[in-house]
Amino acid sequence: MNRTVLILLFLFCICSFFGCVSVKPYQKMYLNDEDMDLGIRKIESEEASFESYREGASGANGEKVGGGCGCN
Amino acid sequence: MRVQLIILSIYILFSCNASIAQSQNDSIVSHEELDPATMNFIFSYYEQDGDHSPVTGGVGDEELHDYIFKISVNVPLNNNLSMSSSGGVDLYTSASTDNINNEHDLLVTETSASYIDARFYGKMGVKSKRNDGRTTIGLNGGFSKEWDLGSLNGGMYLAHFSKDENSQIKLRAYYFHDKWDMIYPEELREKIIEPEHDVKQLFDASITLTQVFNKRLKASLTIESVYQYGFLSTPFHRVYFTDTTHDIERLPDQRFKLPIGLYMTYYMNDWSILRTYYRYYSDDFGIKAHTVEFEIPLKVLPFIVVSPFYRFHTQTGSEYFKPFAKHNINSIYYSSDHDLAPLNAHKIGIGFKYSPLFGVLNKMDLSKLTKKL
User: What are the DSSP calls for B184-200, one per residue?
Assistant: First the structure.
C-alpha cells in the first residue's frame, strides 16, 4: 500500500517538475474547455454515490465519502 | 454477483447576473461585474436489480428505484466572497429494506414503512478568495435525514494556485456524525445483544495536487485518508451461520481507508478529448481495489457533445465477508453484505450534452441541458 502511494506521488512530482511547460493564461483555450475539468461533474455525483454503496471502495474523486445509510 | 444498474440524469444550469458593483470618487467611475449567480437543477433516476440483499443475509431481492431531485444555488456576494446552498430529496422504493420485518417469505412484497421512503438533505457553504485570487478558503456544513439515520457534517478546504496558475494544491477536511435509529430485523428484536454504539463518525482529510503539463494536458493527484469510528454495521442486515442460526451484521468499530485517485484530461483535437481516472484503494477490512475509467467527449456539433465511457472496478473481499450461511458462529465479526465481497464491475454507457451558446431558450438564461444515459 505504502509503496503504491509513494510510486504515484513520485511519478506525479517528477512529471510536474520536469515534464511540463509554463502555459500562459492566453494559451489555456483548450485547458479551459468544460470537458477538460478534472474530477467528477455535477451530473455524475449521484452516480458516484451509488457506486460507493455498491462497491467496497470510495473516495479520492472529490465526492463525499460518508454520511447517510446507503443500506439498500 | 450480478447487479444491473440504470441511471438517467438531467442537469439544467440557470444563470443570471447577480449585481453590478460600482465605486466612485472625484475623478474615476469604475464598474465591476460579478460572476453570474447560478442555479443547478438535477434530476436523476436510478434503478437496480440483483439477488444478494444483505437484509436477508446475502440472498433476496435488491430491486431499487430511486428518484432524485436536487437544486443548488451559488450567489457571489462580492468579487471575493460567494455563498452556496443546495438541497434535495430522494424518493425510493426498496425491496431489500422491505424485508426487515419479513424473514422467511422473501417473495412477498410488504408495504411497510421501508417500502417507499424519502431522504432529505441540505448543505450551505461560503467561499472566500484572497485579493490576488490565488488562495481560496471554503467552509460548509450540511445534514441529511432518512428513515433510519440522521447525519450532520461540516468541513473546510484551502486551495492555493502557483503564481503562473499552472499548479494548485488543495487541502480538505470533513467530519460526519451519523446517528442510527437502531432498527433490527423483527425476529431478532427481543433477543439481540445490543451493540455498544448507535453513532458512527467519520473523519476525512485529503490533499489534491493539480498540474498543467502543457497546452493540452493537465492532471490531478488526490491522496485521501478516512477514519471511521462507531457502529459501522447496518442494524437490519442479517447474517446466517452454518448451523442455520442468524444474527445481525457485526463489524469492527473502526475502519481506516486510503484511496488515491489520479485524473488526467487531454485535449486530443478540436473535436475530441480524453478523460481518464485511476483509483487505488486500500482499507483495514482487507479490501484492496483498483478502478479505471475512460471517457471520450466528442464534439459532434458546436453545441452537442456525445461522450462514450467505460469504467472497470475490481476489488478483493473483506476478511469479514462470507456469503449466505457460510459464517462460523464463533466468529467475532461477520457480514454477508456483497459490497464487501470480491467483485469485478464493468460500466459502459454514453453521455449526451446539449448546450447551445445562447441557451436553449434563445438568449434566455436557461443555458444548459444535459442528459446522460
Answer: --GGGTTT----S-SEE
Backbone torsions φ then ψ of B56, nearest 5 degrees: -110, 30
The answer to whether A35 contacts B307, with C-beta atoms less than 8 Å apart, is yes
Is there a contact between A46 and B42 if contact means CB atoms under 8 Å apart? yes
Give B258's pLDDT tier (boundaries 50, 70, 90): very high
**What are the residues whose beta carbons fall under 8 Å from the beta carbon of B51, sequence distance 6 or more?**
B59, B60, B61, B62
pTM of the model: 0.86
Which residues between 4 and 63 in chain A have a beta carbon less than 8 angstroms from any beta carbon of chain B? 4-5, 8-9, 12, 15-16, 19-25, 27-28, 30-31, 33, 35-39, 42-44, 46-47, 50-51, 53-62
How confident is the model over B279-306, as pLDDT tens digits? 999 999 999 999 999 999 999 998 899 9
Q: What is the DSSP string of B112-139?
A: -TTTEEEEEEEEEEEEEE-TTSSEEEEE
Contact A54 B164 (CB under 8 A): no
B309 and B351 Cβ atoms separated by less than 8 Å: yes
Beta bridge partner(s), residue B121: B88, B144
Best interface-test mutation with A: which of B214, B314, B320 has the largest number of A CBs within 10 A?
B214
Residue with cell 453570474: B36
For strand B288-295 and strand B272-283, is the pairing parallel, antiparallel, or unpaired? Answer: antiparallel
DSSP structure class, residue B317 = P
Nearest to B276 by CA among A54, A24, A62, A38: A38
Tens digit of each residue's pLDDT (9 = 90 or more) over B28-52: 444 556 778 888 888 999 888 888 8
